[in-house]
Amino acid sequence: MMFMIMKAKHITMMKLAISTAEKKEYDSALNALAHSLKVSRSLRLKINDLIPETLIKTAKTYLDKKDNGHALAYYDTAQNILPKNDNEFGLAEVDLGRAIVYMSEKNLSRLGF
Fold it and tell me: How far is CA 21 from CA 2, 29, 81, in A?
């Protein structure tokens, strides 16, 4: 029962983060995502891909905020977790996000060009 309550709390925080990010309230979104990540880690929810999903959403929020350094850090962390979950879609999201960062920095050498 407690697991279900905590998982519901995680999902609620993710929805709040998405809603605030859409309103360009990035700091509020990052706070909600940090709380969601804390809940996920406390429950060890890696099996359900909630931790990588939260990391990717956090990276996207930093990307929207034009904070490329933090965005790359979160993409890198997600990339380290995703192969363990065999999540090809998540890995593609990470690659796309990193490419967007490198393109915005005009660092095309990192993309192989």
Answer: 29, 5, 24
Total residue count of the chain as it appears in this document: 113
Count of domains for the chain: 1
For the entire predicted model, the pTM comes to: 0.68
- Secondary structure element (H or E) that encloses residue 50, with its range: helix 50-64
Tell me how far CA of residue 57 lies from CA of 22, 46, 70, 99, 103, in angstroms: 12, 15, 12, 16, 19
- Which residue do the tokens 């905590």 mark? 6
- Of 104, 93, 100, 16, the C-alpha closest to 49 is 93
CA distances from 65 to 30, 53, 77 (A): 10, 18, 19
**pLDDT tens for each residue of 21-54:** 666 677 877 887 787 777 777 766 544 567 888 8
CATH of the domain at 17: 1.25.40.10
The chain-wide mean pLDDT, for the chain, equals: 77
Can you tell me whether residue 65 is helix, strand or coil?
A: coil
Task: Name the packing angle between helices 50-64 and 26-43 (round to 10°).
Answer: 160
